Model the fold of this input.
Amino acid sequence: MAAVRDYKELKDLFQHHIESYDHLIESGLETIMNVIKPVEINDPFSKIKLRNILCLKEQASKQRPFLFPDECRQAKVSYTGKLVADVCFQYNDGAVIREKFNFGQFPVMLKSKICHLRDADPQKLVFHKEEPMEMGGYFILNGLERVVRPIIMQKRNYPMSMVRSSFRVRREGYSDKAVSIRCVREDQSAVTVRLYYLSNGSARIGFWIEGREFLLPVGVVMKALVDTTDHEIYVALTCSYNEKYKGAKGAVGTQLGGERAKIILDELHGMSLLTHSRCLDHIGEYFRPVMPGLENESYSVVGDAVLNNFVFVHLGTNNRDKFNLVVFMVQKLFSLVDQTSVPDNQDALQNQEVLQAGQLIAIYLKAKLEEWLEKSRHLLSDEINSQSKSFSLSSLAEVRKCLDKNPAKQISTAISNMLKTGRLATQSSLDLPQKAGFTVQAERLNFLRFLSHFRAVHRGASFAGARTTSVRKLLPEAWGFLCPVHTPDGVPCGLLNHLTCTCRITSFFDSHGNIKDFFKIRLSIISVMVGLGMTPSLPKLETTGPPEVLSVLLDGRVIGSIPSREVEDAVSHLRRLKLSATSVIPNDLEVGYVPLSFGGAYPGLFLFTSPSRFIRPVRNIIHSVDGNNIELIGPFEQVYMEIGCADGGDGGRRENLPATHEELHPTGILSVVANLTPWSNHNQSPRNMYQCQMAKQTVAFSSQALNYRADQKAYHLQTPQSPIVRTSAYTKYLMDEYPTGTNAIVAVLAYTGYDMEDAMILNKSSVERGMCHAQIYQTETIDLNEEGGRSDCESKTFRRSTIDRSTHSLDFDGLPFVGQMLHPADPFCSIYNEVKGTTSSKKLKGSEPAIVDYVAIDGKNKKQLQKVNIRFRHPRNPIIGDKFSSRHGQKGVCSRLWPDIDMPFSGSTGMRPDLIINPHAFPSRMTIAMLLESIAAKGGCLLGKFVDATPFASSMNKPDGEQGSEPSSLVSELGSMLISHGFNYCGVEVLYSGVYGTELKCEIFIGPVYYQRLRHMVSDKFQVRSTGTLDQVTRQPIKGRKRGGGIRFGEMERDAMLAHGAAYLLHDRLHKSSDYHIADVCSLCGSILTTSIIERRMPATREIAGLPLRRASKTAFCHACQTSKGIENVAMPYVFRYLAAELAAMNIKMTLQVTSGAGDR
Amino acid sequence: MEGVSYQRYPRVKIREMRDDYVKFELRDTDSSVANALRRVMIAEVPTIAIDLVEIEVNSSVLNDEFIAHRLGLIPLTSDRAMSMRFSRDCDACDGDGQCEYCSVEFHLRARCIGDQTLDVTSKDLISSDHTVTPVDFSDSPGDDSSDNRGIIIVKLRRGQELRLRAIARKGIGKDHAKWSPAATVTFMYEPEIHINEDLMETLSLEEKKSWVDSSPTKVFDIDPNTHQVVVVDPEAYTYDDEVIKKAEAMGKSGLVEIYAKEDSFIFTVESTGAIKASQLVFNAIEVLKQKLDAVRLSEDAVEADDFGELGAHMRGG
Done:
């Protein structure tokens, strides 16, 4: 056994979470601090600015050693570090004064750079009571493990053309066409800019400020950006049209472009905005009210600020670049309008990227810091203006004191709360698609479920409620990046996707773990491109367009144009540079070459170096640099690439389009969980989807550090086994560390009828020998500080009562013994209230016995014990009604534990099956792989070897050049293995009835199949009631399993009864067994509310000993009629009386007409 | 009923016998008797197994129930089981099942002191009765070498401890699989194979070979001298019909006829080690006889009680 395993394959699956957070810590926080605008307080002119934010590991000291993640989980606190930042004060351009502010306890991601367990080897992890293969990537908040769920966003810095009917209703004259670009700043915050097409031929630029969209004529923006002439603008906008190429391939410009350019310029004339400065002033005037802090600035300064802060923010302050981008976008928009190019599909992965943990926190933190600064400014200026006290802004001590009213610590609290709830508490949307649902709890039901939380990406909460289903569609662009199999069925189907096992997310870090210098990378890319024949755009604007030349965009910046005949060579050269480890070109550069086409996508060469993109490895079969031919490609470029399958065939390609790349392995299109299904290529596809669901609901070996965990609920399989038939992914991802099932001997036959309709018969002896035994661990946390009100919070302790005998099963400290068996309603801890001098006890809930597994105390409070975790263990061995499933979406419920001797047995081996399923489970579901698994596992058992069941294995050409051999089928391979051991080729055997000892008249398919025990167990679900609690208002039985309620006999059930004509039964269910009530109705006034019972006074009689007391006679009396003459007894549901009362409250009188006799009217 | 006798005189021929394995023929009887014998061997021959565990200290990684369950599954030498009392029937201890007539006490004390992982095995179980001990699977009894340390119960690391008291009781496999003395009991019907020699001669050697090879088990062979197909091992036949199907596929249906003899059975018995395989068969017959006695007794008493058939069932069961 290897001394130290590096779990690299597994680590890679979690890496994107950690890298994203690492970047935030390493440079993201600093960037935010630098870009946050200082606030100014006018009185004695001064500035406050943030600088140098530091997130420190908690310093250990003698009094308080730092907390490790495990301690946080146990104590139900958060795993955090102190966030300290310098706040800079500057008075009247004087020297900067730095003051350290504590911004509170900032949540720390496990295994990130500032985590104590970073780089810890398995041994150290075990020492710290973690899993030996702890991967991190999540936060611990109040003891709960929460993970940021990545959300799919529009691809950053790429102008995307779109058609949406909602644009039309925006304002008069708008068409449904626009080009949209999501620009992301260096600090990860984003502003989306849209260029709308107006039906009159002009265009408007729109962007959102504080939840409101502002629209500007495109001409104004162009002129405001660059001091240029109308002619230059005209040429720039019309350069893509050339008479020569009319109707040629890739010609996107049309004659109409010139007309529209004129309209745009005429608009400017109409508004008499002729010069650069006039345009800038116009913008400044228009925006000044919404630009806080710039109220007193000149229009041109405000105009500049608007352009800097909201227009194409990814380009910073470079207005020439922005101008070029506007030109490109206008050309793309016109092309879209003229239908020389098609709109980009928003739902296609091609135009998407992910929002990750670090980015989300960065955006939110920035918003919160700005909020804090703004509030601080208010506080200070209020203090100055109040003048009641002698407040001097120049005294830092006083400023600090004032700022304490707006504690800086709330910043980290806000971040923690955001991660705890997944909800953003901000006014504006921060250019994020949703406000809630950003984080989920990383449940450790089993390892596959845990892992899937880190591999899931969500399409966005806004689509969950949408009525259209087009976003849920599996599109070909997602090939290789999102798993086609691993998506839940039901509500989130197609919205919650999982990354494939090979898919990664680009990060800020290069392969050596250093932060990428994007500026340098971009510069070198530009120089490479110039070397490849690109004309840089900066000296002069290009005067031609496609198809002659193609624009080159690097991260949303027009860096030049390249002649279309040279572009293919340039792309090929770039791809070679990507492979080289020594070049400055990063290996995850996305070379999105959109070729010229007849009305296809808008052509161009789009290069992306940005983080948060999907990438996956493929083999480049043209280039190989230093033996490396694994190229990382993104979904944008994949669409235009020729990637063949590695089966050696041409995949139906024509000769003029040979494959340039090759898949590494066909299983690369599947997620980790989907990859574990053996031979999933032989199954009907929905079955594989079901298996992905059920694998995540399996009771498995949940955790190796189970003894140290305090999860609210943990499921644990007592006797797991390693599957005989397994895929290569099983070994690759070390699933043996967390096995999920049992190799059960499964016979497929209809025996006894107890296996009908997906029921299954378990062998009683097998279960008694330990098959599928499981436990549920449940932890109760009792914190006396949180118990009850604040009044007596300090006065409670754990102590056993000396008087109350019922708690004497507990230890004298009021806590249970470890290993003690508790029955429902037994006390499990006793609490003594010192103020009142009373003891109370906590009772075990539920309906099944539990065993005290462990008791942990929180010794933080030295004086008295205040907080304990008590973990219970519920044994859950298989019983009738428990759910099981094979790995092929074949689930079933145990219908009987059948005695071993009554099970059929094999004549040759004497084996009895562990489990019997019905043959009807197969024809309609077509889970051939399950049959294959059975045969293969049987062969594997006889051979004493594990069998490889990697799907699509035949689609790989063998590396050792074994093409000559006959492509033998899988079945014949497995069959001959069985034959050689004296078994039937098809895996069938002759079985004898266990009851009669006679041969069963047909051969039975029998073999080992890996079975999973699912977490749905009857013990959690059964519900039974004869009589019990009633609802106070309606006097009907209450609902809810926990409270001992009944199951609703609903309207559909009522309909069924009526259809059967079972009137008496219906009456029994809905009336007699429900809210049967006899009401006194006054037939004179028809009311049921005015009657009441009056106890008639008996004439005074002497009590005679021995004689029963005469009952006081009761008479009903109508208060409205002042008589009891017309009182009748009527049986009715009690809710009817309630209805009458409710109606009476609304001044509606309900009267009943009471007649005697059924048919009497 | 009276006068007609269905009595037969079954014969048993032992073919192979080891401590934990026996193979014998059972002839001149019905499948019902054969199956009854099989069922009794699996589920109704009594053995002794740990049934009650009192855990004093358990700081191992496995929880109490897990260890108790594992202890229960350890086979104990149960030669005394037939003569022992069921705890429920024991009048010496009023059914609390802790007296010497119906129970055996075990103790286990293990604590890991060294840095090496300590394996707690069935050999660490100390019995109060030398006739009831965990089964020793070593080849030569008394060989206590390190490579044969019995069945592992739990592994302890430094500082962990396991201390417990266990009570073993008599029971049958019907109640819980841990009391089942049989690992495997199976029987097969003896096959009767008739080769149609005339038809066989019409086959070429190649065809014969492929026909012989069609059986996954080695039932037939070709005589190297005469090139005749001979039956070498009829009992290897698993009633899989492969050869018959093959003959049909070759267009020679009726090439071979195979019947299962209705009254001859070949039994294979493997014991868990709790009792010797041969003893298991004897005990099973003994239990079967007791059950028959119960039936016979109840037949006399049928008129006496009003339960009728139900009463007989209650007593017999």
Notes: The CA atoms of residues 179 and 877 of chain A lie 60 Å apart.
